[in-house]
Amino acid sequence: LDLDKFFTPRSIAIIGVSRSTFSLGGLSYLTYLQESRFGGPLYPINPSAEEILGIKAYAGLTSLPRVPDLAIVCVAAKRVPSVLEECARAGVTHVHILTAGFSETGTKEGKTLEEEIAAIARKAGLLIMGPNCMGPYSPSARLTAWGARPGLDGPLGVISQSGGITQRLTEYTCSLGVGVHKAASIGNATVLDSTDYLQYMAGEEKIRVIAMYLESVRDGKRLLKLARQVNRDKPIVFLKGGESETGASTVISHTGRMAGGEKAWQGFMGQSGVSQVKTMNEWMDAILAFCLLPAPKGRGVFLVGGGGGNSVIYSDTCIREGLEVPGLSKANMKRLRPMVPVAGSIAGNPLDLWETFQNPARLSEILEMGYEDPRIHMIMVDRLIPRNAYHMPIMPDSTPQVIEYFNRHGHRKPTVFNVDSEGGDEDLALKGTKLRTLFCRSGIPAFPSLERAARALSHLYRYHSRFSSPEDS
């Protein structure tokens, strides 16, 4: 299936644009496409208007000066079938139906309307995204009528049955410097299902990582087959909605589909090898790791910074996540001992050395040890935020020098920062957010807790170990 016109349309018709009602609908889509500086013609369709937002309005698709690449349908549900028939007559093949009010309502009328949509699509050969969805998103094409605007292009592809979750993810990734190449909010997926978009994104060279949020699927066998193939080359980070009994029952009123049995989905996760996450934060953390880090060659982690008690907790956390905290090589221990004060510090792995917070040259030296040590495969650096609780002199912020080190040397082994900003301290949270954003936008994953950092690295390690083993090569 050729889905290019959904994501790189040269012209867009928006059917059902009011002149005054600014809510989710035709007027908001037209406004946001203007704000995003979409490069092609926009055709608002409203039989009662001559112009909307300074753009000439048209009575219908057949009166347009050209056949638009994409039609966005924003009329009432009962009018959608007639609009689709008009699309067919006008030669429009790619249609996004924003409108809700179909099978997800649980009513006979809603189900009948959705069946009518499917029948018209089959007869006329229409490719339909939705209904009941936010539709396509592509920052490189300035197609950002929702989510972060104008967004940020990058290596991530997104397929989701939830518009709200997809929108939040595009905002989250953009703020942390990870761009989205293409995203599809697919809603009820009446005509095109998640498998169609997965097959499409598998062939998109610029997409290196795929994030999926699904509550249901029409063809489970096809999804398994595709996921197993695609996941070998492009990590799929999978968030499943509707796992609990309450969540599963809510799926029906969200997309009009059954969520499917938990055992079947667990079987899919295990057989496909996708990286399953349980929360929005874990989803984002894993995406950061896959998009920004190289493959680790083992599970050994070097913990730098921390402090005494933190080092104990950090070690336990890493081991719980399936990682290891190995001792350093004899050569590195010999180099390390003269640097570490006997009192109040710990030489080894974990490394409790206060100087790493203040002296970028010392941190660089420690990082070099980790990169040269054959027992170490990944590095986590604790990055304390200066505040009154610590007996720290006021010193210039060394973060720019640390970032410059990575700009020069890159990630010779996966390296992340733990920016401890969780808790109730408002000032700490603000400083932590700014510091984390600075690191991430510089291509260095940074997490608000070591627990989240460890889980992200665990996803990275498990994925690469699975596909680098002899039986999978």
Task: Give a brief description.
The protein is α/β, with parallel strands linked by helices and 473 residues long. The chain has helices at 4-7, 26-35, 80-90, 108-124, 163-175, 194-202, 220-233, 245-255, 262-272, 280-292, 308-320, 330-336, 355-358, 360-372, 399-409, 426-441, 450-468; strands spanning 12-15, 42-45, 51-52, 55-56, 70-73, 94-97, 127-129, 135-137, 156-160, 180-185, 209-214, 236-240, 275-277, 301-304, 378-382, 415-418, 446-447. The strands form four sheets. Strands 8-10-9-11-12-13 form a six-stranded mixed beta sheet, with helices on both faces.
The helix-and-strand class reads alpha/beta
Number of separate strands: 17
What is the spatial order of strands in the main beta sheet?
8-10-9-11-12-13
pLDDT < 50 runs, ≥5 residues? 246-254
Structural account:
The chain has 473 residues and is of the alpha/beta class. Helices cover 41% and strands 14% of the residues. It contains 17 helices and 17 strands. The chain has a six-stranded mixed β-sheet with strand order 8-10-9-11-12-13, with helices on both faces. Helix 3 packs parallel to helix 4 (108-124) and helix 6 (194-202) runs parallel beside helix 7 (220-233). The longest helix is centred in the C-terminal third of the chain and has 19 residues, at 450-468. It is elongated and about 80 Å long.
Features:
41% helix; five-stranded parallel sheet; 473 residues; alpha/beta; six-stranded mixed sheet; elongated
Topology record:
Layout (H helix, E strand, L loop, with lengths): L3 H4 L4 E4 L10 H10 L6 E4 L5 E2 L2 E2 L13 E4 L6 H11 L3 E4 L10 H17 L2 E3 L5 E3 L18 E5 L2 H13 L4 E6 L8 H9 L6 E6 L5 H14 L2 E5 L4 H11 L6 H11 L2 E3 L2 H13 L8 E4 L3 H13 L9 H7 L18 H4 L1 H13 L5 E5 L16 H11 L5 E4 L7 H16 L4 E2 L2 H19 L5
Parallel strand pairs: 1-2, 1-5, 5-6, 6-7, 9-10, 9-11, 11-12, 12-13, 14-15, 15-16, 16-17
Antiparallel strand pairs: 3-4, 8-10
